[in-house]
Prior knowledge:
Elements: H1 3-13, E1 18-22, H2 28-35, E2 40-43, H3 47-61, E3 65-69, H4 72-76, H5 79-88, E4 92-98, H6 114-118, E5 124-127, H7 134-146, E6 152-158, H8 159-163, H9 184-196, E7 200-204, H10 214-224, E8 228-231, E9 245-249, H11 257-263, E10 266-270, E11 288-293, E12 307-310, H12 313-324, H13 338-344, H14 358-368, E13 374-377, H15 382-389, E14 398-399, H16 410-420, E15 426-431, H17 432-437, H18 441-447, E16 452-458, H19 463-471, H20 486-492, E17 496-499, H21 506-516, E18 519-525, H22 529-544
Parallel strand pairs: 1-2, 1-3, 3-4, 4-6, 5-6, 7-8, 7-10, 8-9, 10-11, 11-12, 13-14, 13-15, 15-16, 16-18, 17-18
Helix pairs in contact: 1-2, 1-7, 3-5, 3-16, 9-12, 10-12, 14-15, 14-21
The protein binds thiamine diphosphate and magnesium ion.
Thiamine diphosphate binds near residues 432 and 457.
Amino acid sequence: xxxxxxxxxxxxxxxxxxxxxxxxxxxxxxxxxxxxxxxxxxxxxxxxxxxxxxxxxxxxxxxxxxxxxxxxxxxxxxxxxxxxxxxxxxxxxxxxxxxxxxxxxxxxxxxxxxxxxxxxxxxxxxxxxxxxxxxxxxxxxxxxxxxxxxxxxxxxxxxxxxxxxxxxxxxxxxxxxxxxxxxxxxxxxxxxxxxxxxxxxxxxxxxxxxxxxxxxxxxxxxxxxxxxxxxxxxxxxxxxxxxxxxxxxxxxxxxxxxxxxxxxxxxxxxxxxxxxxxxxxxxxxxxxxxxxxxxxxxxxxxxxxxxxxxxxxxxxxxxxxxxxxxxxxxxxxxxxxxxxxxxxxxxxxxxxxxxxxxxxxxxxxxxxxxxxxxxxxxxxxxxxxxxxxxxxxxxxxxxxxxxxxxxxxxxxxxxxxxxxxxxxxxxxxxxxxxxxxxxxxxxxxxxxxxxxxxxxxxxxxxxxxxxxxxxxxxxxxxxxxxxxxxxxxxxxxxxxxxxxxxxxxxxxxxxxxxxxxxxxxxxxxxxxxxxxxxxxxxxxxxxxxx
Length: 546
Ligand SMILES: Cc1ncc(C[n+]2csc(CCOP(=O)(O)OP(=O)(O)O)c2C)c(N)n1
Ligand SMILES: [Mg+2]
């Protein structure tokens, strides 16, 4: 077997079912080994999309997704995806080609030091220098990518090592790992803090969305009856309409949910990852914060917990609840604020203005999406509206990126969700800017026969930056553009497209798109004057108490 064959056998050994990417000539031995394997090669139209898809596979399953590229230019196109997976804690393996390392028949043509490029963007970046090292290196790569805190790993396979014949080497079988549970002393200290709290509040952060955690979190919240809010990436991690949800901290301060946060004397921050835009700002007079996580907390200017419960989060929370269940007199002290906070989120949700308000769009999307439907967001102004206003009841049903916050990931992440969950409704939500950053993948989605609706917010602008420009009192300048005819664009890709022409037209358009199946674009004109009206003026007045 050659090096490529060994690599592909090692990937099969890890349970890999598909690899996304764009091969180059340096990968041809790998491509040939894939052809003979059980692994499907899914070519995309840009490596960045392949990386976003592989990362989303890791995010949704806990098992690393795999992407592939050639050397130099192709590998460089994976870097944004690497950063997306690194900041977002998504397990992913990137395999890139390279010219031969034992001789240099093409001098430095296309040669870039990709291992050095990937080093700060990954948990590990290695060049494979001998087929003999492949089984151990691949096992190590998956172990590192998947274990807490998950992230990307890069392996570079030079073409001569890929081609080199070697004896068969035994593969290393993977095994499940249970993490250690929090120390009893830490559990006692945490229980004491919570018992003494007068106004406790639970915060669910990004790590709360790990696929394996959702049942344990729901049980914890249900047993203790402490109200909770979540960060953007912690959204949906408690299932069921627990009646304890207080809102999502999409902004760092002054939003309605901060009425509860500002009054809390203890915040139990479960799985908070400071890659997210801060859900609240700690200061010298703020609440006590208890960090609960797989790993110790990172200390930041705005986040410096006073106590920590470190260990496997699910079992640790069960032990914590065992110490506290039925003994918390003040568990629900902040719950009376709930109605008022959530009430604001329905403002203008049914207004019939056209172009539509963002609140109306979020409302109508929720109507059309079943509880287990998955909405995958790109990055733009609408992300704040979805984070604040879209209610989730099933874990990982609103996928958004509040870590790298890159544009361009909405469509590829939705494609991956649609591949993993063919029986569920999957919606990509994009701006007219972000959609165009990976619009070429419509062809991939059609070729893969995915059922997928892409909702495009059309404001003919980089709306989010235009909003910030206005908030900061800069003149309106430089942020507008024109769009292609998106309906024709969809048709050109053998997909279908429809424009929403009235306020009442959105929900039926989405419903029809889902019913028809296949790849569907729905273009909705949006009125972003609401951004300043609500997110600046109204919240400012609210924070002043006027
Ligand atoms: C790759 C990338 N480039 C630039 C940015 C900065 N940025 C954040 S939001 C945004 C505008 C997004 O425009 P659009 O997708 O049309 O969404 P809108 O805000 O208009 O709804 C920009 C340029 C980014 N986050 N990622
Ligand atoms: Mg836009």
